[in-house]
Automatic annotation (TrEMBL):
UniProt-listed Pfam families: YjbQ
Species annotation: Solidesulfovibrio fructosivorans JJ]
Highest classification ranks of the organism: Bacteria, Pseudomonadati, Thermodesulfobacteriota, Desulfovibrionia, Desulfovibrionales
Protein name from the UniProt record: Secondary thiamine-phosphate synthase enzyme
Family under the similarity heading: Belongs to the UPF0047 family.
PROSITE patterns linked to this entry: UPF0047
Amino acid sequence: METFEVHTTRREELIRLTSALQELVDARGWRDGALVVFCPHTTAGLTVNEDADPDVVADMVAAMGRLLPRDAGYRHVEGNSDAHIKTTLVGPSLTLIVAAGRIMLGTWQGIFLCEWDGPRNRKVWAQWLGQ
């Protein structure tokens, strides 16, 4: 298993991980298999979405804020229940296909860490399943 850290700078943001994960695949010489990526935090998750237009990322963060406002009368005393719920919606993990040493993504897709309670230092775990 590989571990790397991601430093976030805002309470809510999406951080691109595509290049870092591809660099990991390249460095390890992984060719054909699956890369399982896991975020071991309850207020940050992972997603695959459009990476061609930065407005999509901004729209995703804004939409989550409208769906789950920070101060909506939650009972959790830490004041970050919205972040826990947002993480549940996006999920903590991804399984990515790797073929011929390349992470297989659609033309416009990228891999993101979704920060909902930052800024923080986050860990991402990556496990190779393959030859």
